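Structure tokens please, single chain.
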Amino acid sequence: MNGRRSLLESIRHWVDRSLHGAMTCAEFESALVDYLDGSMSTLAKRQVDLHTLLCPRCRRYLRAYDRARRLAVEALREPEMETLSAVPEDLVQAILSARRSGSTAHGS
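Here you go.
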């Protein structure tokens, strides 16, 4: 496994030095939002695609980042009032009561 990692790092080093337009991990992270939004040039998109192909760490980061973005969008789509109406009234009252008694106990 150690020999394989060394080979991969040698290839990555060669790519970084030899391929015109190869990007670093920092450049990849900076370009990520535009890449996912589809608001970059074809050349820039190809650079991100190449980096993702060569860098397993950034490939994992891309998948996790994209999933987190999609989950956030889904969460924001749900109407807030529906969510609030699903909370039991006795729970709301218990929370409000605890806040009131907690604020007087701390002198606020």
